[in-house]
Amino acid sequence: MGQIGILVEDLDQAIDLYGRAFGIEEWNSYRYDKEFMPWSRYGDEEGTFAMRLAMGGANPQVELIQPLAGPSIYHDFIEQGHSGLHHLGVFVENLDAAISLMEKSGYRITQTARGYGQDGDGGFAYFDTDRDLGVVVEAIEVPATRRPGTVRRTGGI
């Protein structure tokens, strides 16, 4: 497991809360939208979901996600009355190979996006694993170079 994904209502408050709770002082913050990730899909339809997110820590990385525009699996989760732990992320070298493996194992893609890296690489795919694992699994192909984000610091540390 490389990442723990947590859905939050307010990213700014969550950075302080989770930063203090886990001793994470510095976060890289991004806004993922159509401009940032040029291709996305929600279910069987092309998507236009958007979110603010912050990543901090390592082994595992903590990712905080504030949903903005939907539809998305983030909105589905919140509409079901949930918040907090949403997914476990696994870093993969080849997203297509990970998708193929998960589909052969009977897990369908619920949401995916590509192109969030500086050179148009990088992608992620979420799978419907909740029924078996009690949590969603995300395969993450990290881009060679990330686009610039905003460094955020946990208040009070």
Topology:
Layout lengths: L2 E5 L3 H12 L3 E7 L6 E4 L2 E2 L3 E7 L4 E9 L3 H7 L4 E8 L3 H10 L4 E6 L8 E5 L2 H4 L2 E6 L8 E4 L4
The helicity comes to 10-25%
Query: For the largest beta sheet, what order do the strands appear in spatially?
Result: 4-3-8-9-10-7-1-6-5-2-11
Low-pLDDT residue spans:
none
Total strands: the figure is 11
Beta-strand share of residues: 35-45%
| Through-space gap between termini | 27 Å
SS-based class: alpha+beta
The backbone outline, from C-alpha atoms, is globular
Count up the helices.
4
Radius of gyration: 15 Å
Helix and strand run: EHEEEEEHEHEEHEE
Main sheet: strands, sense, barrel: 11 strands, mixed
Average pLDDT: 94
Descriptive keywords:
11 strands, globular, alpha+beta, eleven-stranded mixed beta sheet, 4 helices, 157 residues
Structure description:
The structure is a single chain. With 157 residues, the chain is of the alpha+beta class. The chain is 21% helix and 40% strand. It has an 11-stranded mixed sheet with strand order 4-3-8-9-10-7-1-6-5-2-11. A hairpin with a 4-residue loop joins strand 5 and strand 6.
Brief digest:
The chain has 157 residues and is α+β, with helices and mostly antiparallel strands.
